[in-house]
Amino acid sequence: MGRSPSKGLSARALRAVFTACVAVAGAGGVAAAAPIYPASETDPFYVQPSNLESSAAGQPIATRPMPPLLAFPDTDVWQVKYRTTNSQGRPISSVSTVLVPHTRPVGGPLLSYQHIINALGPRCAPSRTLYTNDPDLQIKEAPALNLALQRGWTVALPDHLGPNSAYGAAKLGGFITLDGIRAVQRVPELNVAESPVALAGYSGGGMASAWAAALAPEYAPELNIVGVAEGGVPMNIGKMANGLGMQPHPAFGLAMAAALGLEREYPDRLPISEQLNDRGLAMRSDMANACTNGILAAGAGRSATEVAKTTDLMSSPQAWEVLDENSVELYPGVPTAPIFEWHSPTDVLIPVDSIETTIARYCAAGVRVQSELFPSPDHLSTAVLGLPTALDYLDARFRGDPAPSNC
Q1: Which of 92-96, 220-224, 236-240, 252-256 is least confident?
Q2: Is 90 exceeded by the pLDDT of residue 319?
Q3: Does the pLDDT of residue 9 top 70, yes or no?
């Protein structure tokens, strides 16, 4: 992929950022050009501690039992706040919600499930949406998670976008996921210190899972990850941008949210807000703390050409470096855990060829990969079609059965 700017708008880098997580969319003047972050926390449990440097990655900072949930019968709920690492290697804290079935054995399987979080507001993270009555924020994977709980698995749901809801910062999700597992295993009340671990997720959640699997051999080699199930993964966000283009799109809000989320994680290298015109800044304000539906409504039918005032960022090598650094396809690390991967061969939201290239690289390195196709009319339907098979795959890994491979 080249680095020269396209005609008209600073088109390639800004287009890439704006469209990075579609698979996974007034105010003006200098004062409005700085990154916009989520509203201040009111729950002390989520506030960033001042002494994180003194804690090791994956160290629990606080735990609390939570009220039971009707969606998960016969299950205790805990929340664990822990120290993790952002994309620049600096310490931050995040939260994982842990579902503990009453039937789980001590040391029984632990599944880290990375939920799809298309959002810029912390209220949209799993630890909060589990306790809301808003139907737009419900955990749609609850039926599949109940299948896991009924098998006696403990399920951890990390808030993998981090404290700033850095939507689009995929590598960050890998660090948060791995440190979440470390933290959960270090909480004595949860009885999973010696548990075998599996990772699972689809789309944006699959991206966090894929990054965690790739980072684990170097970042968290002590974890006993016996299997990974990753579906519909956007393996290359820059290539995905090139495929979508600059025309008005009903999901442009998600693309713009990805741009703003990446700016939160890389404010010096990806100053998107400086590139926005008044319309873009107003849209940014509308979605600064929004969840999926609010983001989609704010950007429906828009395009990058409508919200940009300058073309300077498009030719910036730094912008492309950020996209490359968050693309699993371009990360040289290779997972050591066996992988189940599934997607639709006709998925128009993600670059399917990047999935194939990544899997081929893993196979060549000796990874046991079972890759399955689930044809469907849209991206999210494939999640429903493939998830039961994915859970069966992980169940076999927990039993210690040899991992299949169709490399």
Answers
A1: 236-240
A2: no
A3: no
Asked if residue 57 lies in contact with residue 125, where contact means CB atoms within 8 angstroms, the answer is: no
Return the domain boundaries, the chain.
1-407
Rounded Cα distance between 407 and 393, Å, is: 16
d(CA 273, CA 32): 8
* Choice between 231 and 141, residue whose per-residue pLDDT is larger: 231
Residue in 145, 157, 238 with CA at minimum distance from that of residue 205 = 157
CA angle centred on 253, ends 378 and 96, rounded to 5°? 80
Strands 110-114, 154-158: parallel, antiparallel or unpaired by DSSP? parallel
Q: Judging by DSSP bridges, how do beta strands 339-343 and 197-202 pair with one another?
A: unpaired
pLDDT in tens, 336-357: 999 999 999 999 888 899 999 9
Q: How far apart are the first and last CA of the chain?
A: 27
3-state SS string for the chain = CCCCCCCCCCHHHHHHHHHCCCCCCCCCCHHHHCCCCCCCCCCHHHCCCCCHHHCCCCCEEEEEEECCCCCCCCEEEEEEEEEEECCCCCEEEEEEEEEEECCCCCCCCEEEEECCCCCCCHHHCHHHHCCCCCHHHCCCCHHHHHHHHHCCCEEEEECCCCCCCCCCCHHHHHHHHHHHHHHHHCCHHHCCCCCCEEEEEECHHHHHHHHHHHHHHHHCCCCCEEEEEEECCCCCHHHHHHHHCCCCECCHHHHHHHHHHHHHHCCCCCCHHHHECHHHHHHHHHHCCCCHHHHHHHHCCECHHHHECCCHHHHCHHHHHHHHHCCHHHCCCCCCCCEEEEECCCCCCCCHHHHHHHHHHHHHCCCCEEEEECCCCCHHHHHHHHHHHHHHHHHHHHHCCCCCCCC
Amino acid at position 98, single letter: V
Superfamily of domain 1-407: Alpha/Beta hydrolase fold, catalytic domain (3.40.50.1820)
Burial of 327-359, coded b for 16+ CB within 10 Å and e otherwise, reads: bbbbbebebebbbbbbbbeebebbbbebbbbbb
